[in-house]
Task: inverse folding
């Protein structure tokens, strides 16, 4: 596993390879990331993982400051997996060399879910994914369904400009069905017990949606119940179509999306 610290070294190291699978991350490596790496390892000749906490996608300074960082531990896990050929650890200037202001804007119809609650977040994500794709030039990029809206927007954005294919990967959960996330490192044990209970409740809600005529009304009631029972703040609880992310009127081709705050940590999930 070669560790790459700047773009000159990156270009040199990657020159011989064109069947490259890319797993972009912000570190805090867990089994969710490793599942993306495994898939890349199966489908591509070489796999490159990047670790870059992109400041431009944080709409909140404290969130950026508190984001879990442990590069030593991350490298140890990646090396142990034996599935990673290159780890790219760019500096801010490696990514934002050209200093040009990003021209990325979201369409009105995409200003939903996290885009509505984290202003500027996806503009930052799309900007960095454009830059990383231009620099790494991978054949395939592996991204998790855990961040479904991110996957949806990045896929759409990259399809306009590059040949690179975005490959969706299933959400990895722990034994209590909690979706793995670097942000879980910020939670206490008893928070995780509640997160598991919330997931169970979401499974019930999704099942019960089938018989409901007024889904929006039903979800509003469920939202209130979740808030009261678990003392969480909920940004959204919505059923949306997986192909266009429009509000759904039935369970068909749909996922239930949630974002909530527990112990000041913002979590998202979909099922
Ligand atoms: P992050 O480091 O949180 O920016 O995530 C890097 C990539 O890993 C993104 O494509 C995420 O969607 C994906 N990912 C994060 N958590 C999971 C998970 N539990 N299961 C599958 N993929 C995940």
Result:
């Amino acid at each position: 596993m070669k560790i790459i610290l700047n773009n000159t070294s990156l270009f040199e190291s990657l020159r011989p390879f064109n069947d490259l699978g890319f797993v972009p991350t912000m570190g805090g490596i867990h089994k969710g990331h490793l599942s993306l790496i495994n898939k890349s390892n199966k489908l591509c000749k070489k796999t490159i993982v990047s670790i870059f906490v992109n400041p431009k996608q944080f709409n909140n300074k404290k969130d950026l400051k508190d984001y879990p960082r442990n590069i030593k531990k991350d490298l140890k896990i990646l090396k142990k997996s034996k599935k990673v050929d290159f780890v790219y650890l760019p500096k801010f200037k490696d990514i934002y060399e050209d200093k040009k202001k990003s021209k990325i804007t979201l369409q009105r119809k995409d200003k939903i879910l996290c885009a509505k609650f984290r202003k500027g977040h996806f503009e930052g994500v799309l900007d960095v994914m454009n830059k990383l794709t231009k620099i790494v030039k991978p054949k395939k990029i592996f991204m998790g369904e855990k961040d479904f809206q991110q996957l949806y927007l990045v896929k759409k954005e990259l399809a306009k400009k590059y040949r690179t294919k975005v490959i969706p990967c299933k959400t990895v959960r722990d034994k209590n069905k909690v979706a793995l996330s670097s942000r879980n490192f910020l939670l206490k044990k008893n928070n995780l017990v509640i997160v598991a209970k919330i997931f169970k409740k979401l499974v019930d809600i999704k099942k019960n949606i089938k018989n409901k005529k007024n889904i929006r009304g039903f979800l509003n009631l469920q939202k209130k119940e979740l808030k009261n029972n678990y003392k969480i703040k909920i940004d959204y609880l919505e059923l949306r179509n997986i192909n266009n992310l429009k509000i759904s009127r039935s369970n068909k081709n749909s996922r239930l999306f949630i974002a909530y705050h527990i112990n000041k940590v913002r979590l998202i999930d979909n099922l």
